[in-house]
């Protein structure tokens, strides 16, 4: 493929090999604030995240975006672990090669600001970024952020560690604040961030420590393929091909509004899990 690109599209090949911006792409650099002092560099680099680096002779890390193949800023918001919400432009990052539906950190440029602020593992409960067709939502799960397949009272995600055997924290339930409280928390947090503190330090100053979060226990991860989270009962179900009919059958058993014939068809195969969760959300509220 590389040789074909080089022969047919020599300019694009040069762009890809050098990491340059092609005609029509306007690269910008933004300063990145709030990276905790104990955050390690990626091995043999001066980068905290891919392309989030400290240049030689400088002290403040930065991120050059608008370059082909790099994370993009798009409208979105971050619900921090304490209730404050920062809205503006959000970029999502992976560290190393991981599942496409997993993210490890984010940068957010709040409305009216020019600097980006670092949001690391455990700093937020929800990351949201506008996608091509809809808003993409990522939930805090262990030390990462997991993309939802379906949102709603019953939400569905892929299991990022299927086939392994260890425990991860279950989904974190967002702190529920009204709009006024949320705005006040965000203003306090932003003031602390702009003074040079990290998100974690800012939450402590704002008296919004993560201890106020309702953590929902843990589950054993062992060859499980989907995670279904019930926002009402705050229960996480790990579902695989062997237990699909039983687990989802129990979910529908508590929903008298569901049509028995429809449910029977949905429970025949785990291939229908997305349809099953969508149907539950539409009739079982």
On the 0 to 100 scale, the average pLDDT is 79
Cα end-to-end separation:
50 Å
Query: β content, as a range?
Result: 25-35%
H/I helix tally: 7
Q: What's the story with the biggest beta sheet?
A: 15 strands, mixed
Shape: elongated
Structural class: alpha+beta
E-strand count:
19
How would you describe what is shown here?
By secondary structure, the protein is α+β, with helices and mostly antiparallel strands. It contains 7 helices and 19 strands. It has helices at residues 2-8, 10-18, 179-194, 199-205, 244-253, 260-266, 273-283, and strands at 28-33, 47-49, 52-53, 62-65, 74-80, 85-93, 102-103, 105-110, 116-119, 124-130, 135-141, 144-150, 154-158, 165-169, 172-173, 214-215, 218-222, 226-230, 235-239. The strands form 3 sheets. The protein has a 15-stranded mixed sheet that branches. It has a two-stranded antiparallel sheet with strand order 14-17. Strand 18 (226-230) and strand 19 form a beta hairpin. Helix 3 packs across helix 4 (199-205). The relative contact order is 0.12. Mean pLDDT is 79; it is low at 1-24, 163-171 and 206-224.
């Amino acid at each position: 493929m590389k040789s074909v690109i080089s022969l047919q599209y020599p300019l694009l090949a040069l762009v890809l090999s050098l990491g340059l911006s092609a005609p029509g792409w306007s690269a910008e650099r933004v300063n990145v604030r709030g990276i905790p002092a104990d955050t390690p560099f990626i091995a043999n680099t001066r980068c905290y995240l891919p392309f989030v680096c400290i240049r030689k002779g400088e002290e403040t890390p930065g991120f050059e975006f608008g370059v082909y193949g790099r994370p993009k800023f798009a409208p979105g918001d971050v619900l921090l672990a304490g209730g404050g919400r920062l809205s503006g432009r959000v970029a999502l990052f992976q560290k190393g090669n991981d599942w496409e539906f997993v993210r490890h950190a984010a940068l957010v440029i709040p409305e009216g600001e020019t600097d980006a602020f670092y949001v690391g593992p455990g700093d937020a409960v929800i990351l949201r970024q506008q996608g091509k067709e809809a808003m993409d939502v990522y939930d805090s799960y262990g030390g990462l952020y997991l993309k939802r397949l379906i949102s709603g009272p019953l939400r569905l995600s892929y299991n990022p560690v299927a086939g392994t055997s260890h425990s991860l924290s279950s989904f974190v339930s967002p702190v529920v604040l009204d709009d006024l409280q949320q705005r006040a928390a965000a203003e306090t947090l932003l003031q602390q961030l702009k003074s040079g503190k990290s998100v974690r330090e800012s939450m402590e100053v704002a008296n919004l420590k993560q201890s106020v979060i309702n953590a929902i226990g843990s589950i054993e991860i062992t060859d499980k393929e989907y995670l279904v989270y019930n926002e009402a009962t705050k229960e996480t179900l790990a579902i695989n091909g062997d237990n699909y009919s039983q687990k989802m059958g129990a979910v529908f058993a508590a929903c008298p509004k569901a049509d028995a014939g429809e449910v029977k068809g949905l429970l025949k195969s785990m291939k229908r899990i997305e349809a099953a969760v969508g149907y539950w959300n539409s009739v079982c509220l």
